[in-house]
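Lab notes, practical 5.
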Amino acid sequence: MNNHLTDTIDRRTAIGGAAVLAATAGIFGHARSSSAQNARADYSAHPMAGMWLALPNAALPTNPMFAAPSFFSPDGYSLFSFPPVDIGENGLFYQSAFFGVWEPVDDTSGRWHGVSMSSDATGLFTGSTELDTVITILDDGTFIDDGSWSRVTVRDALNNVLVVIEPTGEPDGRPPVTARKMTIDDAGFPAPSAAATPTS
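Output from the prediction step:
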């Protein structure tokens, strides 16, 4: 159990992220789409489809949130990118993007399920992190994720389950993950705060 994943993982790390405001705890009982066995569904009309710029949390709560371009394809695939290197309680580690699938829950929310792989500073594969969560699109077209409905499963390099964090229905105290749709004229970054403005 001496693995940086078990020391640093939380709902916010996994989606940096990811996870979300949902109407009821029963959202995880949502029936799985049969589209995996059949032709891919067309979700292009759902507001979740498209390219977003999300702002998840880093592994350590003292480190700043980061930009994470995130794509939800019209046919139900997802890619949630993270910086390839982060720092946890046991030091530096490497991580992949979250690769996965998504489907609508209703007209304003969608469930996504993804997996990220991790290695230590020597390049040794250390395991994976699986996230199952729901994203809600707000009236202003942004989405928000407070970590209250995410299920996180951490596995070691042999795929043994080390940790399962079940959704609690409550935020975990870290800032919510927010995202804006990217456009040709606006990458989606929020206005910087005065404290974050670099000085010469």
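Observations recorded by the TA: The mean pLDDT is 79. The CA atoms of residues 65 and 121 lie 22 Å apart.
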